[in-house]
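Figure 3 (text version): structure tokens given as input.
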């Protein structure tokens, strides 16, 4: 509900927004975010992961998902 409220605020201010409950901590969640953006706008110009976590042995240190491919 909080995400939907933020989307509405952005739209009322003239912007565009969608909400996605996926998590960037796993590949499926990250993929669903990109897929939703592609459905809404037809392309993704830039991705910024601004989660702000610092977990020892996290995804980047273990060779996890950290780079997006081009479509």
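Below: residues designed for each position.
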């Amino acid at each position: 509900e909080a995400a939907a409220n933020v989307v509405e605020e952005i739209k009322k201010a003239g912007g565009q927004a969608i909400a996605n409950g996926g998590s960037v901590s796993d590949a499926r969640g990250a993929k669903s975010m990109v897929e939703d953006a592609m459905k809404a706008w037809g392309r993704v110009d830039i991705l910024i992961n601004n989660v702000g976590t610092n977990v020892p042995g996290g995804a980047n240190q273990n060779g996890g998902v950290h780079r997006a491919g081009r479509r």
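The chain has two helices and no strands.
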